[in-house]
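mind reviewing both lines:
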Amino acid sequence: MTAEADLRSQAREWLVLLNSGRASAADHAAMERWRRTSAEHAKALAEAENLWALLGQVERPAAIVQAMPRRKRRWPLPLASAACLLLALWLTPPGWHADLRTQAGEIREVTLEDGSRLQLNGATAMDWNADADGQRRVRLYRGQVDFQVAADAVHPFVIEAGEARIRVTGTRFDVNLLGDQVLLAVSEGHVQVSDADGREQAVQAGEQIAWLAGRLQSPQPLDAARALAWQRGRLVFRDRPLTEVFEELQRQQTQQVLFLDAAARELKVTGVFALDDPQALLRAIETALPVKLTHLPGVLLVSSDG
């Protein structure tokens, strides 16, 4: 996720909270502080407010609402309508036009024209191109891919994922585009990597490296049990933020997630879960953590509990 897209996401979350009927005076003050952080913050919120104003007109007719039995509702009908429409209009996943795509919950194996073998995790999208000069290029828009690149010293295999650049001639590695970070885990051989600032680094088999907000970090020993767990049908988390956990979870189910407060975003998760049972992970989160999960059509709202 780019910095601009992340700001838009945060702006949407502020509007969902402030229109939920739960927002306190402190929440309104915190939103104003967020708005004044920078001109980019103010622009993102203004765009969200303009779209929200348009969506606010899409409500049930008054006669229908009045005819409904009166009961206490935690989330007003206009909020549910607006939240769902916002997601439909703004959260069209990147790479919807890509050459290769998987749906949420789908794991797909692909063999490219050059003989390279790929395994795509759920909700992954990428372009593949081999030009007349033999250059081999992949653009990863979202998701996670295990690459087994066919050896060809003359024609390097280049991958772009966010601000990450990965260049190999033949080896095996895993690329995980997760929010505003990219994670590379090298199983075999070696990989040459760089970022938008021109920093370069060689990463060897048994190492992993991350790009955070586009900046290349230092190599670390490979934690294969966690980084490659999806290939064995598992999700493994070790003290990971709840935002990252839900990023992983959305590869297995289509429901979109919106956080309503910062406290919920910072909660940590540790555990091992089955990849094909996302509901078990949701139950574990709500049981073990002080969070409230509110289900709307196509949307999961996450807030601190108490």
